[in-house]
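One thing: mind reviewing this one?
=====
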Amino acid sequence: MAATATESQSASSYPTGYWYGTIDQTEIERLDSMHNGIKNYFDGKFFFAPLDNPQTILDIGTGSGIWAIEIGENFPDAQVIGVDRNSVLPRPTPSNVHFQQLDILADPLPWNGGSFDVVHVRYVLTHLQNPQAALKRIASLVRPGGWLLIEEGTMDSEVKGDANAIRSAIGLFCKYWESNGQVVAIGPKLESWLHETGAFSQVNVHEVIAPVGNNPEAVADTKLGRLASVYKDSWRSAFLGKVHPKAIELGLTPELRKQAVEEVDTLEWQTDMPLYMVWAQKSA
């Protein structure tokens, strides 16, 4: 089925390998909600590395800027830079936090290797072609003894329950990403990829599995339930958002995504979404 008039731009006008949203107020609220959901699940923590008065911090794929803002508040003596391929909408920001528009893959990097005490990446690698190569480039920015912090997930195309449109839509998202050279099950690979760089003296991984969906019996832990709800809302946003024309050609049509949105809260369904918190220290 052909794309609608609003979605029928040529495929060449879309960057491949990225999430196709824009940073508007709705997206800011979604990204802030995800940040707060992760932080609340971990009792207010949003990083695990034992950071010792870092002076330079880089947040790659900063999105709404919320992580950069809060890390800047935690370390007021640090200079924090948040970069994103989209411009970051204005919002109240500490004086030590600055944002700039930068495509970490395509643009020349304005810093030398080893420029940052801390580099943070959240849900970026899964949306990139050849993420292992991107990870090496990102890792090069961490100074000896500094920390690379990563939060990533694994997109599982298995959906239990009665929501057939959601099952089809999630499966087609995964099929498109894989056809585009993206790694859907990226979370379990991060530890070995980091070790393969030979650049890190320690790599730590903490995994949480959130039972995402409309299945109240699946979640006994209230905190985990709130985290799962955040991810459910992210899937809702994905169904509502703009997708690549090639994904539409595979069958991820506006009609299917509209039906998936209708099923989110009305039918029973569940897909398990792992969250991987990774903190790796660069060899001194």
Residues 222-240 form the longest helix (19 residues). The chain is about 35% helix and 25% strand.
